[in-house]
Amino acid sequence: MGHYNDPCQPIKPSSWGDPRLYQIASLSTLLIYGLVFLHFDASIFQIVVTLGTAQLTQYAATKYFNLPSFDSKSALISSVSLCLLLRTSDLATAALAAFIAITSKFVIRWNGKHIFNPTNLALVVVLASDLGWISPGQWGQVAWFGFLIACLGSLVITRAARADVTLAFLASYIGLLVTRALWLGDPLTIPFHQIQSGALLIFAFFMISDPKTTPDSRTGRVVFALCVALVSLYVQFGLFIPNGPLWGLIACSPCVPMLDRLFPGIRYDWSKPTTGRTALSIPISASYQSQRRLA
Predict the structure, then answer these.
(1) pTM score of the predicted model
(2) Which of 53, 198, 227, 232 gives the lowest tally of CB atoms within 10 Å of its CB?
(3) How far apart are CA 211 and CA 233, in angstroms?
């Protein structure tokens, strides 16, 4: 049995101060609403298999790597996100996606930090293997429902101190879509229609903003978001592959260690949400001399 030392593993953060609780509530609300009112093409069996496989994998990895405690919240976030986005007619595929998502957190790491967003990696593997699909149109074009997703996501990223990467991505992505439409002479209704997607909003507010896979510093996150937006549009309009943001994120994620090195910041801790900005410290001697001058 191996030993797994994760310096980022949270040690029982203050219960209601943990941003993951708000994220679980938000994603669960979206899933229930989609199943009841929008009639998502996802069976109860697929949801149960996805959630159960994620928890079992998290528990097995906890035991194998000798982690101090079993943490179900991270696995629940990844599995509910898969239930929202992944569509497949095979329960084995749903289980495989959940297994890949959770296992990747423990296996694919660099300097104590997992490289890929778990949900993003699982979705890309399933899509590349042609075992499942994503239905962006399942949310409909109801403006207020998109606004609901945005509001819930804003609550999550604000508490997780990662609003900057989401806003930077949306500004870059939408700006590039509008620029492309103007350059081609297309009406602006085209890019506006392209961004009316629940899948895009979930990606922006719940996936790219993952504190454990984004750069530690604010500057690094803004650069990262711009790179993801550029690659996403190239994949979607240059390579003509749908779900460009998913591929853009998976392609840019390996660059996060380099961005952390170029733009150092404080490592994120679930128990103490931070933007990554290094606090300024004043030497004791300088502080003492200043007090003497003011006395």
Answers:
(1) 0.82
(2) 227
(3) 23
